[in-house]
Amino acid sequence: MSNEVVLLDFWASMFGMRIRIALAEKGVKYEHREEDLRNKSDLLLKMNPIHKKIPVLIHNGKPVCESLIIVEYIDEVWKDKCPLLPSDPYQRAQARFWADFVDKKVYEVFKGVWLMWAKKGEEHEAAKKEFFEIFKILEGELGDKPYFGGETFGFVDISFITFYSWFHAYETFGKFSIEAECPKIIAWVKRCMQKESVAKTLPDQKKILEYAVQLRKRFGLE
Amino acid sequence: MGEELKLHGAWISPFVYRVIWALKLKGVPYEYIEEDLSNKSPLLLKYNPVHKKVPALVHAGKPICESMIIVEYIEETWPQYPLLPIDPYERAMARFWVKFAEEKGDAVWALFRTSGEEQEKAMKGTLEMLKTIEEHSPDAKKFFGGDKIGIVDIAFGAIGYWLGVVEELLGVALFEAHAFPRLHAWLKNFTEAPKIKENLPGRDELVVFVRSWRAERLLASQN
Fold first, then answer.
1. What is the fold, at CATH topology level, of the domain defined by B5-77?
2. Cα separation of A23 and B40, whole Å?
3. Which of A62, A169, B166, B199 could form an SS bridge with A212, CB 3.0 to 4.6 Å?
4. pTM, whole model, 2 decimals?
5. At what angle do helices B106-113 and B116-136 cross, to 10 degrees?
6. Which of A59, A69, A93 sits opposite B99 (nearest CB)?
7. ipTM strictly over 0.85?
8. What is the tally of structural domains in chain A?
9. Nearest to B152, CA basis, from B160, B141, B144, B140
């Protein structure tokens, strides 16, 4: 069976980064195609007609969409190396729960910070409070474990570590320090960054900040 | 598996029913505990501290939360009557539609909670969701899962049945047979399937409940 793997991606997307990390962990060779989100390719629109979003993994011509679903797919297809999800059903349910929490809540508070730039005083404080509430919950779940998955880097770690590339941008605009409030999260980040798959995937935080500033101007938030 | 299985639920909740359907289809016995959502039990809050919601499935004392995550857990623990295909690609497709139901289904739940402009928006969202599923859903099979009910049927079934309730409540027809023929046929197959038919809350009772719940909310928001 030929194993043609193509990833439609966008360099700054924390969702796309999840796929690159998963593929790197599994040692899968693939073709990376960068999309211009303001001018989406015909291929992207054909492969993800419903959401028209990246990432899309195209395996032997067939598209898989939605980042966490793609990661599970990668785990099931390339199952002989480096399991990303635990084998026990209860542990798997917990992994899915926390990855889902990241998707729903972390993304939400990140969006809140985005709008925070335009907010002052009370609203700014409220958005900051919400942001750290979510981060503290995650810190609680991490506890003293080296990774969310326990001894090994896994599904939940992959789902959350990609947001790290945007930390500097959010700290700059939100005017706060994540390390000051959630030191365990930063310790976990540093541990993850020692993995080649993560270090090679995550873009430079300064580049993300530059991009975020551009976006902010584009959306008239400056 | 002789271990204790308990489901914390509420009779009005579509999310709880997804779990019930999975357990019933697989013939897995469980104890059901009805929660008063206006006065949640300490046990529920202990089992679902993050979201504080039903359903919460507790297996040998260990809780699993979020309806479709619970359904996947049930699938992996009790292999009879498989709800997911074996092929990884087919599984990814099923999970895609489950996620779609989760995200877009919000518009339907919003219909229950909202009025005025917000409700108009929710109606629009509901119609868009129905249109997408009608257009993109797999070809003429009895269920999304094929000949048998699968995980996608369970995800959408909750939305479909409760949509009927809100249509009756609001006196609107959103899910019309002529506009959504495939979906209509599918919902009929689903709600008439024996294990599902026996495990549906009464539509009239639901309408009565939601009507009074909405009136209470309106009153509360005016004070």
1. Glutaredoxin (3.40.30)
2. 43
3. A169
4. 0.95
5. 150
6. A69
7. yes
8. 2
9. B144
- pLDDT digits (tens), chain B, 223 positions: 557 999 999 999 999 999 999 999 999 999 999 999 999 999 999 999 999 999 999 999 999 999 999 999 999 999 999 999 999 999 999 999 999 999 999 999 999 989 899 999 999 999 999 999 999 876 668 999 999 999 999 999 999 999 999 999 999 999 999 999 999 999 999 999 999 999 999 999 999 999 999 988 888 887 7
Sort out which chain A residues have CB atoms less than 8 A from B100's CB and list them.
50
Evaluate whether residue A83 is within a structural domain.
no
Host domain of residue A203: 89-219
- Give the domain CATH number at A171: 1.20.1050.10
Put simply, the chain B residues between 77 and 116 with a CB less than 8 A from any chain A CB are 77, 88-89, 91-92, 95-96, 99-100
My answer on whether A212 and A102 are in the same domain is: yes
Q: What class has domain B88-221? A: mainly alpha
In Å, how far is A27's CA from the nearest CA of chain B?
19
Which residue type does A27 have?
G
How far apart are the CA of A210 and the nearest CA of chain B, in angstroms?
31
- Residues A27, A126 share a domain: no
Nearest to A100 among B66, B89, B136 (CB): B66
Residues A72, A93 within the same domain = no
Residues in chain B: 223
Q: Kind and range of the H or E element at B114? A: none
Q: How many CB pairs under 8 A join A and B?
A: 55
CA-based nearest distance B76→chain A, Å: 6
